[in-house]
Amino acid sequence: EGVKGELEKVRAEYERARTEAKKQEVEVVAKCKQIDILTSELTNVRGKTDAERATGAAALQEAKEACKRSEAEGEAMRAALKEKETAMGGLEAIVAEFRLQLEQEQRQT
After folding, report:
1. What is the pTM of this model?
2. Can you count the helices (H) and strands (E) in the chain?
3. What is the DSSP letter of 109?
């Protein structure tokens, strides 16, 4: 009976150790899953941040290009206006000369 009693003690100890090992295994698996979830979330956040950064950079670049186009269009408009002013000045000179000739002709008649 002494051997049977020892055997029972060893079996009970084995069962407790086995139960404890399973419990720890479940905890480890749960922690590993949690780490996987957190890693996945972190990767998603990084991806979103990178995407947002890229989108922001693209929008900024587009705005810079639009600004350059607007400046170029403004410069072209100023040049065209200058040409029109020059042409207008020429027309005014022609009209003034024409009036002068008309007045001289009226005086002569």
Report:
1. 0.42
2. 1, 0
3. -
Rounded Cα gap, residues 73 and 59, in angstroms: 21
Strand extents, DSSP E, the chain: none
Report pLDDT digits (tens) over 19-37. Answer: 888 888 888 888 888 888 8
- What are the backbone angles phi and psi of residue 39, rounded to the nearest 5°? -65, -45
In single-letter form, the type of residue at position 74 comes to G
Q: Where are the alpha helices (DSSP H) in the chain?
A: 2-108
* CA neighbor of 89 nearest in space, from 103, 97, 104: 97
| The pair of three-digit structure tokens given for residue 51, joined into one six-digit string | 């995407």
CB neighbours of residue 12 within 10 Å: 10
